[in-house]
Amino acid sequence: MEVSRRERFTGLSSDEGTKKTAKDEPIYLRRRLGLLPSISFIIGTVVGSGIFIAPKGVLMNSGSVGTSLLIWTLSGVLSMFGALCYAELGTSFTKSGGHYTYLLETLGPLAAFVRLWTEYILIRPAVSSYVSLTFGHYLVEPFFTPCTAPTLLVKLVSIIGVTFVVLVNCWSVSLAARTQILLTSVKMFALILIIIPGIIALADGKTTTFQDSFQSESLSLTKLPLAFYSGLYAYGGWFYLNFITEEVINPTRTIPLAIIVSMVTVTVCYVLVNVAYYTMMTADELLLSDAVAVTFAGRALRGLAHVMPVLVAISCLGALNGGIFSSTRMLFVGAREGHMPAIFSMIHIYRHTPVPAVLFLYPLVVVMTVTGEIYQLINFASFSRWLFIALATLGLLIHRYQFPDHPRPFKVPLVIVMVFTLVSFFIVGLSLYSDPWNTGVSCALTVAVIPVYYLTVRKSCIPDRWEKSFNYYSRQLQILLEVIEQEVQTY
């Protein structure tokens, strides 16, 4: 009797398979995200912990209130430039995978392979862990005020948040998308709750902090890249919709429109939020605060001050959900291209979610959450992230020159691509001087991935015995997780 593909991979009988998969419904990641979910996805991923912890980092490294507000504005403009470049890339190359796919198509497999591995060894675990640590900090801190919350408890709550997000993303794509929309609504309410009292206070004449706002004795050119890192970190996430292109309805229209609407909204909100902070706090008070939004709420929203930490924690949870939802698609695509084990390109036969890719990320995030510290993690992750974003937009310029007739439904003015690429490389280069330890370690680990490519992909040097053993355990894991490869080409 002929054995079906699902029966071979999962051990289910044909009857069981038919009952549980709606008469052998094809397995693939479906297009479920329209314009509104896409906008919610970008805003929900961008607006996370950044706007609540980055103001301190921006001010600390910029040296003055005026310079910090200028950096917030320029970071928004630079992020918009980058987002427009990625809108062109996302409509020119219809595969999911974001940075990885664009590097693969423009600069070749080596750059894409290094980006893929650094994403999962460095960037995504670091990003997810500092977002989860902020979630834990804001959720636990109110119970111990005015004392400092126990570090162990903060990290335990952070891990619980990560676990919740991982379970949601394993369970259902629709549930993860609905969760993102809900959390985005809550976090926008939190921003409005900060902006309105700030504007009212500004109208009432509370402008002391803004007087002589550009005067500073601590302004240093070498620290400015770190100020931009903190600002750009808060805007980080504008590229995540490109990671899930194959799940977006009508991507040639939806991706550019969602990016433009989202980034304009976020930039305006971020600048207004920082202005609101400075109406209630001096620069020194902001630097002394470990929870800027909570300090603000204690002064401007006394009746609702206890609500703010919960809103911030929910905001972080939304960013965590969006980041894990999208970044796992990069691993999924990379495995599909042969740059990672095939198990990571497989989908659950009932839930149609990339379970192996999601689960692979979980222990890495937990380890970094246990061992990391927020501001070190920001600098550590930002170097590799911005290096490869700069390479992706450089690849866009090269691809335009080499293939001028390639279809580009959305085309960005050349000057925007060039400005964004040059500024990105400048920030990356100067950061090695500003924070040589964290960025140096990140650089070294990035370079260390190159030999892995030549030993495992370009020319496999893995002993046959190891390969057979790996294939055996991969098959057992495939049966255990009930996953198979995608059955429909979605690009």
From TrEMBL:
It is found in: Membrane. This is Cystine/glutamate transporter. It comes from Botia dario (Bengal loach). One of its GO terms (cellular component) is membrane. InterPro entries: AA/rel_permease1, AminoAcid_Transporter. The keyword Transmembrane applies. GO terms for molecular function: L-amino acid transmembrane transporter activity. Keywords: Membrane, Transmembrane, Transmembrane helix. The gene is SLC7a11. The chain crosses the membrane at residues 33-54, 69-89, 143-169, 181-203, 223-243, 255-278, 310-332, 353-371, 377-398, 410-433, 439-457. It comes from the Eukaryota.
